[in-house]
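Every protein is a chain of amino acids, and every chain bends into a shape of its own. The fold becomes a row of whole numbers, each drawn from a learned catalogue of backbone shapes. The protein below has been through that process, and both of its lines are reproduced in full.
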Amino acid sequence: MYNSDTPSHAQLPTSRQLLRSTIIAAVVAAVILATIVLPSEYAIDPTGIGRVLGLTKMGEIKAQLAAEAAADAVAGSTSIAQRPVAAASPSAVAAPPTIKAKNVVQWRNETKVKLAAGQGAEVKLRMAGRAKASFSWTVQGGVVNFDTHGDGLGKSISYEKGRGVPADEGELEAAFDGNHGWFWRNRGRSDVTVVLRTRGDYAEIKRAL
């Protein structure tokens, strides 16, 4: 039964053409890996394009959620506060730890963030490098996991993390120009409200998530 003509030898691709096609495919795959896959999945952004497109932030949140899930699986549903100081990521600029403020009575802004069970949210201050801002936040109705961190100019840093924490306060010093603030995750079964009070040297405060 006749189905199709068998291609002639002249119609077949040469070894050079096959090699060129293979090299082009490898280059395209490497570009996609560096600009899309690594930033969005692992928060690794060697080119800086992932941060411009917002993919690096996606990867950071995925990594953080995976770390939280692993920690919850090991520790169960304990609500005892644990506040280890996290090491800065490789792309971070070294910065001093948060210094606790004393007797802060007047605030520039008060922000309330309601979190349903399992929900996360982020509030950031836009700050210049070495600028300082005092803060105090409390959780109404439960406890939260948190990550105090910053990003900007292609850099990122984690100042402090905690799990099952009802409140925190102190002074945040920006390691570089950019957005610096807090990410909270409600791992409880009931809604909670985070009340954040801030004052100091920052241009604006905004909810990022």
User: Anything to note?
Assistant: Strands lie at 109-115, 120-127, 132-140, 144-152, 155-165, 167-173, 178-185, 192-200, 204-207. The radius of gyration is 24 Å.
